[in-house]
Amino acid sequence: MRRLPRVITPALAGLLIAALAATAQPAQAAQVAQTARNAQAAAGAPATLAAYYGQRPAWTACGGAYQCAKLKVPLDYAKPAGDRIDIAMIRLPATGRRLGSVVINPGGPGGSGVEAARNADAFLSPAVRARFDLVGFDPRGVGASTPVRCFTDAQLDSYYAIDRTPDTAYEVRNLDLAQKQFAQACKARSGRLLPHLGTRDAARDMDVLRAALGESRLTYVGYSYGTFLGATYADLFPGKVRALVLDGAMDPTRTGDEVGTGQSGGFGVAFESFLRDCFKRADCPFRTHRPSAANKKLEALLKRVDRAPLRNEYDGRQVSESIVITGIMSALYSESAWPMLRQALADAFQGDGTRLLLLADLYNERKADGTYANSFAAQEAVNCLDHPATRRADPKNGTTPCDYWPVKRRQSTRPMRADGAPPILVIGTLRDPATPYKWAQALASQLSSGVLLTFDGDGHTAYRKGSACVDRYVDRYLLTRTAPANGTNCPKIKIAPSR
């Protein structure tokens, strides 16, 4: 726990006390410096929020070199004297001469920054970790912060298996009912939280966190949804930005419907890339090496599964059409998962859906004991505020929980400019399935100081994914605030064919 520095008065002390003071001086100096940094970091905070900005986290050991703490933030920033909620955070101290803190967000919305930080090497290079504390946090509504709750674990098992492409009147009603029930469960279990889970509130929390870390300006790496959070922060607090890396960028001007359409196209491009690679492999389950033939074989599989689920050697759940689709999507997030996808599809063509189920569980964050993280509940709660549907609910064309969301929606489809911010690095991967490349182009052009770095690659996001080129530019930017030239390109990674 951080304590206030002791004040030692040499004139009133004997030789023993003077000796003790001498040995304690370096630690005291560090504490004094940290106190000064915290005061500077909190400077300019609104008077009504002074108590929040003045917090000093009580860090405690939480495994290995990690330290954990919680912050208090207002549930409603318009009523800072009202209810408060928790923000959980974790840090891994710098391994060398410390320069500051890097805050990370792994995406989602609903992704746990606390859990992500436990896998430090996947998010920051050793060179950056030597100079910066790695800091992860669970945004409001997520994980170890005050969490939003909706369905139970058993209800989620059933929900994920529901047919998302209904062919009959019964399937249409069943899907629509499930979406209504999910929204109702969120209201029943987390009604007070729902109006306050939008990204603008999370960005304001992040500024409280910045001050609590003693940083006058934020250094941040955000992936996927984390780019939207980072851009929102920069738009709200452009003068508080030191360096922002936005990897796998979202376009803030997209509506909820446009996000869905863009992602559908992105996954289509990613699957074509997977097929081109698959055709070079000895274990490719598609005998005819043409994308059209492979797509027909996959369509036939989905039709068969729609009639009768695949068998599952793992547990008692049915591997439905929705589970098959989710499993395929899960593997397309990373090129490293393509070998497992080849085997999973080979098994599925033989009637075994076990591997696809496990891939879907990974995507849905289902643990081996049958429990789920609350990431999906948080994702829906945030998205239904940030990106509300622009059409009226139509069960025949499929509905979502947002069509029945119980609180007022906030339309936030506008450009993010962040006027006055220093250079902000936006990274786009050409064949990213979840955040299409054109979204990175759009965000970089919207930001007044946006700098676009392009990676000719596959999978979702680019930093720490094997490209020495991307890592070199990002590391230099984080360490020195020197961004690459706008429009810089990094080449595709050459991977040797497997046997």
Distance between the termini: 54 Å
Average pLDDT, all residues: 90
Q: Helical region count?
A: 16
Q: In which range does the helix fraction lie?
A: 40-55%
* Backbone CA Rg: 24 Å
The profile of the biggest β sheet is: 10 strands, mixed
Which runs of at least 5 residues are low in confidence (pLDDT < 50)? 1-32
Q: How many DSSP-defined strands?
A: 10
Q: How would the global form be characterised?
A: globular
**Series of H and E elements:** HHEEEEHHEHHHEHEHHHHHHEHEHE
Q: Which percent range describes the beta-strand content?
A: 5-15%
Tell me what you see in this structure.
The chain has helices at residues 15-42, 50-53, 113-117, 126-131, 153-161, 169-190, 199-212, 225-236, 256-278, 291-307, 321-332, 338-349, 354-364, 375-386, 437-446, 468-480; strands spanning 60-61, 67-74, 84-92, 100-105, 132-137, 218-223, 241-247, 424-431, 450-458, 488-490. The chain is built from 16 helices and 10 strands. It has 499 residues and is α/β, with parallel strands linked by helices. The radius of gyration is 24 Å and the shape is globular. It has a 10-stranded mixed beta sheet with strand order 1-2-3-5-4-6-7-8-9-10, with helices on both faces. Among the domains are: 153-192 and 374-404, no CATH class; 256-364, no CATH class.
Write the layout of secondary structure elements.
Layout: H1 15-42, H2 50-53, E1 60-61, E2 67-74, E3 84-92, E4 100-105, H3 113-117, H4 126-131, E5 132-137, H5 153-161, H6 169-190, H7 199-212, E6 218-223, H8 225-236, E7 241-247, H9 256-278, H10 291-307, H11 321-332, H12 338-349, H13 354-364, H14 375-386, E8 424-431, H15 437-446, E9 450-458, H16 468-480, E10 488-490
Parallel strand pairs: 4-5, 4-6, 6-7, 7-8, 8-9, 9-10
Antiparallel strand pairs: 1-2, 2-3, 3-5
Helix pairs in contact: 1-7, 7-8, 11-12, 11-13, 12-13
